[in-house]
Give the backbone structure.
Amino acid sequence: MSSKPDLRVLVGRQEIEKTIGRLADNINEDYRGKNPLIIGILIGSFVFLADLIRLLEFPLDLDFVRLSSYGAGTETSGKVRMALEPGAQIKGRDVLVVEDIIDTGYSLAFLIDYLKKKEPASLKLCVLADKPSRRQVPVEIDYNGFTVPDEFLVGYGLDYNEKYRNLPDICILGEGE
Ligand code: 5GP
Ligand code: MG
């Protein structure tokens, strides 16, 4: 392990702030007069979610789920399970799911399928970043912050072995780590 981590800024904090402002404008327009249930996916989305919800101008409820994928290694196996279920009732609610990154799409496809069975009034998806080159299953994204290259990203809530979540910028973690 090298002493100095190989980190390159992909998206700086000012650009993140500007983009979250744009996402919030669109979400405010779509949910005006409504009272949606926002579901964050732990752990990675928590920084993004914290910044986003403070720009939302309608009454909202907040809940979290935690997903985990089976199998060893860094590659997602496609087999996803829910490690923490939502506590809130989904039926009849306008649900907005907030995730950090969509990669293969397995995690979000699983969650969307799970939530749809609980009969929400509506279901939309907001992601901070989309890595479309890696997609294995189609997932419709309603609000996307950034389209990013096929690199491993850390910072702004994203981790590598639980580290780097506190970095204020979205960074590319180099091969050496
Ligand atoms: P999926 O492949 O199912 O779309 O995503 C699997 C999980 O890996 C998700 O929780 C997603 O947030 C995470 N993930 C995907 N790409 C990256 C990345 O570049 N960096 C980090 N830290 N997590 C990622
Ligand atoms: Mg995640």
User: Anything to note?
Assistant: The domain at 15-69+78-150 is CATH 3.40.50.2020 (Rossmann fold).
